[in-house]
Amino acid sequence: MSEAVLNNIKTRRVVREMTGEPVAREQIEAILEAARWAPSGGNLRPNRYIVIQDAETRRLIRLVSPGMFQEAPVLILICTNWDVAAEHNLPPTDRALLIDVGTAAQTMMLAAHALGLASGPVTSYSKEAVKKILNLPESYSPEMFICIGHRASTAQPGMRAWKKITWRDLTHWERFK
Ligand SMILES: Cc1cc2nc3c(=O)[nH]c(=O)nc-3n(C[C@H](O)[C@H](O)[C@H](O)COP(=O)(O)O)c2cc1C
Questions:
Q1: I want to staple 90 with a disulfide (CB 3.0 to 4.6 A). Which of 75, 94, 101, 120 is the partner?
Q2: Which of 91, 57, 94 is nearest to 74 (CA)?
Q3: Residue 140's beta-bridge partner residues?
Q4: What is the pTM of this model?
Q5: Ligand 1 mutation pick, 9, 14, 71, 77, max ligand atoms within 8 A of CB
């Protein structure tokens, strides 16, 4: 086990204040390439990613996203492609679809952190408005934004600083008595 991997996992924090500095295209591609290696239920790969850098599109998205505090130069929207789900007879209630969003999101954020970039997930936004802004096909549903940029020196510590949770608080061994 590489210490560098563990350190990357432990030191990643959601960043809600970013500078306007752009993110290099190669770095965006490296993040997308990392996400391609995220585990996926049945290896079905139902996620599709929309990369948004256009300033006006980002402005419109922020207007309909109360949970998006950062002005990130890059937004990656993780979508579910329902055509893929239907092809494999996955009902919309199948939880693997949402779990896939989580594995892709965490992989992207860890990749961004490894590249020295800041990131933050956002689920608090109007799905309907985002679908319209991006002209998404019917078969795509927006699931989670990953904001990517450079951490501002003024960025505040996130909610994790409010309470310390250890792995012991979250874990049961073997079976309940
Ligand atoms: C499913 C999910 C939805 C989230 N939605 C938002 C959001 O809309 N806006 C936001 O600023 N942070 C959002 N977060 C980030 C969490 O608040 C953050 O991960 C948590 O406070 C722990 O902080 P840390 O990741 O920096 O350790 C979300 C995280 C997850 C896993």
A1: 94
A2: 57
A3: 81
A4: 0.96
A5: 14
**123 Cβ contact partners less than 8 Å away, ≥ 6 residues apart:** 67, 143, 144, 145
Structural domain range at position 47: 8-170
What is the H or E stretch that residue 28 is in?
helix 25-35
Per-residue pLDDT reduced to its tens digit, 72-108: 999 999 999 999 999 999 998 999 999 999 999 999 9
Q: Does residue 175 sit within a domain?
A: no
Question: Which residue has its alpha carbon closest to ligand 1 atom 19?
Answer: 14
Contact of 133 with 60, CB cutoff 8 Å: yes
CA of residue 14 to ligand 1 center, whole Å? 7
- Looking at the structure of the chain, the number of domains it has is 1
Q: Which residues pair with 71 in a beta bridge?
A: none
Length of the chain: 177
CA of 174 to the centre of ligand 1 (A): 29
